[in-house]
Amino acid sequence: MRTTSTLAIDAFHHWHPFTQARDAEAFPPLVIDRAKGVFLYDAQGRRYYDTISSWWTNLHGHGHPALTRALHRQAKRLDHVNFSGFTHVPAARLSARLADHLPPTLCRFFYSDNGSTAVEAAVKMAVQYFYNLGRPDKRRVAYLGGAYHGDTLGAVSLSGSGGFHAPFQALRFDSLELLQPDFARPHGFTFNPVNEPADEGHWQAVQALLTAQADSLAAVIVEPLIQCVAGMRPYPAEFLRRLQSLCRSLDILVIYDEVATGFGRTGSLFALDQAGTQPDLLCLAKGLSGGVLPLAVTVTTKAVYQAFSGPRERTFFHGHSYTANPIACAAGEASLRLLEKPATLARAGQAAQTLAEGLQGWAGLAFVRDVRFLGLMAAVDLADPEAGLPLPAAWGLGQRIYRLGLEHGLVLRPLGDTVYWLLPLVLKPAQVRAILEKSRTVIESVLRQWAAEGRRSDGALGGAEFAGASV
Ligand SMILES: *Cc1c(COP(=O)(O)O)cnc(C)c1O
After folding, report:
1. Atom in ligand 1 nearest the alpha carbon of residue 147
2. Ligand 1 midpoint to CA 55 (Å)
3. Which of 299, 199, 212 has the alpha carbon at shortest distance from 239?
């Protein structure tokens, strides 16, 4: 009864993110009733491995008692208050704890609600920083090809994810696209290239453009170590070290968007730990609250903050209603405490190793074009098993894998013909192996279906077309 009415109301009222309306009609969403640990449960009590951590947010599994307790306690004491003119214990505790884990230069915390707002704040800070210093010409931001930094218009202006943003091309502000790092191995598999040398050709191209445009550039923004929406594409840390020293010499601020990579997902607490670098601005969101409430922070340096101190017109006139929400901050602090337990990262390390070993075994399978991984993030590009070539996006591969995945108790949301996993930190090795086994079963069965349908490049399914990519 409850399911029926939920679906009826959903069909009538809800506009789901990243969802084509016709798909939503043909394949109504699944009603999720509850979640515990690494599983989601539907209204019929069937369970699903949350292999994408509920859109990359969940770290410790669902319903973790430490987080639930912290936010309950805080809700009873202080639910919310504006963060200008007021401050509170949960924000102070979270900031102090976070600062313990960041390079000491990153000491100023500006809170907001989500990854996109964290990016918007970072970009506006970088631009106003130079404006306040009397250098208004340094107002553009450079980004890497293929990047994704969010869906608000500023973030869209810094994203290379073409299809998502086509209607807004005219609204993009003047930004500078740098060559995308590409570590795909044409005759082999990418695996984990983070400790390999930087690609000289790529570096030369980036260096030349930044050097030529430095006078107009306030900042460069990157997803450090791995481009996520681009298809979980890791790249060498050495690129980040070179970028940092070049940008220092050219007086360009460096922004790290660690919205997806933060909080243990890459094998270290932050991607910047593996790179050994210190950006001028750092964006955190998704895992910041442990995955239970919206919370984001833009962290910067004393030098940047000081440029905003002085006459009134130097103020950063920017903020959001729910800035530093106390309940979300309390959850964030509880989540950091869990991350600080040596067992947490050790267990995540074991899961990551199982994932890497499992996927290395996929290299050479007929349906696999490439395999990549970094920590708990991993992806395979699929191929037509007979020709070894990419599969046509129009066939709706992603949707079919998604739907069959659910039948096998698995949440898989491919990006085009790339199947990825972004796992919570608490999976046991046996669960990681189970996820990979089930994923393989699903992929092989969908590809058999493709062959059975005559390997057509189009594939109207249930009367609906499928978006090539989903997130
Ligand atoms: C998800 C994501 C964002 C946007 O975060 P939202 O909370 O969805 O607005 C920005 N940058 C990166 C790298 C992301 O993965």
Report:
1. 13
2. 9
3. 199
